[in-house]
Automatic annotation (TrEMBL):
Protein name: Thioredoxin family protein
Originating organism: Salinicoccus roseus
Residue span(s) of domain Thioredoxin: 44-166
Keyword field contains Iron-sulfur: no
Transmembrane regions listed in the UniProt entry: 6-24
Alphabetical UniProt keywords: Membrane, Transmembrane, Transmembrane helix
UniProt entry tagged with the keyword Glycosyltransferase: no
Annotated InterPro entries: Thioredoxin-like_sf (IPR036249), Thioredoxin_domain (IPR013766)
Pfam families found in the cross-reference section: Thioredoxin
Length: 168
């Protein structure tokens, strides 16, 4: 009788550990569980494909304008004036510049699409990106102008945005 109770407890403990392992494994593969906010714009990628630096930025509201490479191309091809911000979560200049960028877009009322080129590295060649951060303006599917680097303040971003939209 004592052996049956002992083996029953051992079996129960094993089943509990297996259940916990399965739950933890499935929860970590759910994109919504990667961030506290549930924000996950990389719909064409599995969570395990993302770089750690990208995952670290999922809860940062300054980076909640990200699109996939295909979505970005559709937006550019849409024909209307579009701003695209090419950035990388491993770029210290991007980390410093992005709060200025989002402030400038809030101030001007314009919209921006962000493209994380750490995740979509083919964008370097496709859009001839030489450095990050780069803010580019597109009309009718063609690039009109770009601002490369960290201007160091929101006003310079706003000035560029307004010069592209004619709202100077």
């Amino acid at each position: 009788m004592g052996n049956k109770l002992f083996y029953g407890i051992i079996a129960l403990i094993i089943v509990a550990f297996v259940g916990i392992f399965i739950y933890m494994n499935s929860a970590s593969n759910d994109p919504e569980n990667l961030s506290d906010s549930g924000y996950y714009p990389y719909t064409d990628k599995d969570p395990e494909e993302l770089e750690g630096a990208t995952i670290d930025k999922l809860d940062d509201e300054n980076y909640h304008y990200n699109k996939t490479l295909d979505e970005t191309q559709e937006i550019i091809d849409g024909g209307e004036g579009e701003f695209v911000y090419f950035w990388s979560p491993t770029c210290v200049h991007c980390i410093a510049a992005t709060p200025f960028l989002t402030d400038a877009f809030d101030e001007t009322g314009e919209e921006v699409t962000q493209l994380n080129i750490l995740e979509y590295d083919q964008a370097w060649n496709e859009y001839a990106i030489e450095a990050t951060p780069t803010l580019a303006y597109f009309e009718d599917g063609e690039e009109v102008d770009r601002l490369t680097g960290n201007p160091g303040n929101a006003d310079d971003y706003a000035e560029f945005i307004n010069s592209m939209t004619g709202d100077e």
